[in-house]
Amino acid sequence: MKSAIICFILVIATIVLLAVVLFFRDRFLFFMAGYDYELTKGTSVESFKAHAAIQKWRLALVGLTFLMGAACFISCRNMERIMGEWYYTIGKFLGIITCVIMVVILIVYIFLPKRLF
Asked: Of the candidates 1, 7, 70, 100, which lies 20 to 30 Å from 17 by C-alpha distance?
């Protein structure tokens, strides 16, 4: 029973982190760092400081989402073998899709120049 709850929590956490990374990454990071998002759309000194402050956290958030997707895949795959329910299959595929998307984002971070972000 505990394994089913852990799988459910991992699936929900993976969905939340995936939504944050794909749709609200910069807004979320500026909020967590305490910067106003509207201020950072300009070219002032504060804007450059804000972007420099969240740069390392972008990779950390993508890495955390990748690890969450991998954990979701592994736990749901193991539970699917034991119980064979359909929602474990969905959790397994969600973990695979999350890992693939995060690897693509990390490759883009590595190969594209920093000024394009």
From this structure: 1
